[in-house]
Amino acid sequence: MDKQGFEELFSLEGRVAVVTGGSRGIGRAMCQGFALAGAKVVVASRKLEACESTVQEIRNSGGDALAVATNTGDLAQLESLVSKTVDTYGGIDVLVNNAANALAFPFGDITPEGWEKSLNVNLRGPVFLIQYALPHLEKSDAASVINISSAGAFLFSAYTHMYSAAKAGLLAYTRALAAELAPKKIRVNAIAPGTIDTDMVRNNPPKVQEMMAKAALMRRAGTPDEIVGLALYLASDASSFVTGTTINIDGGLVQR
Asked: Is 256 inside a domain boundary?
């Protein structure tokens, strides 16, 4: 490998990346990182104003980005996200399923409406978004799907069982689709973050936040920026021989 080849390993120059839940937290950090690596980034989340704020940050740094208001639980909006992306940029190379719903009930209090809301966003939405994007991923020379799961998929997840079950299901789809889409040269991988300093974590009481952070071997919460390097690796040619894998990035939480 020469210097130019090395420098191109992590380049996303000329590629189109769609990131759901892209307006804050981990999603926002990934959008910024992908743009700095040269990608045209589509920032998708429920609130258009929040998407546009992230897009403006990217543009201020010299990047190219598009805001698309999208509720991942609404299949019609997911189809529209794909259409708007292709209409604007001509294709899709990288798809990141990051949007999530952390709705939680004690067991015994689950409602059908809560179950549907949780599973629709955390599992049904990502699966159908990949399916809607599939014709365009097939045309890409560097197609990569990254599913953002959770350490909760591996833990004894009391109270967050709906979220954790959906995230475990997303890992099953990661493996299944990696096998099914490999002949189409589409790579499918997952990231399972532990406790990351995001709004989702900060919605918990301070004592719960402290407990979540100190549960990891490193005794702290991670930052959204600490996810970016791994996401860039999985999106780029640096991971060209990697598919069907889940990588924990959790400060040593699951290993305990």
From this structure: no
